[in-house]
Amino acid sequence: MVKHIVLWTIKDTTEGRSKQENLLLAKHKLEAMAGKVPGMTRLEVGINFQTRDGAWDLALYSEFESQRALEGYRSHPEHLKVIEYLRTVRDQRAVVDYEI
Fold this sequence. Notes:
Layout: E1 2-10, E2 13-14, E3 17-18, H1 19-31, E4 40-47, E5 58-64, H2 67-74, H3 77-89, E6 90-99
Antiparallel strand pairs: 1-5, 1-6, 2-3, 4-5
């Protein structure tokens, strides 16, 4: 099993929307991938309620059957649509992938 975790910070305003509006839209777009990507067995998206220094705004936790499934996800059309949006609203991004 492969675990894929991504964290983002979101700009204060982008695309004519507030940070909170963009966070909710990002969460909705990410969650819409559930059940559409072959080999993805779990997907969770969370908006951080903490505002302390060093806190990230948005988190994606997902699990895949294999590294091959994760590679397929990276080029999946549903994922590419979400990436296109996130690139416009994100400030920073961190990612980790590991196998257990």
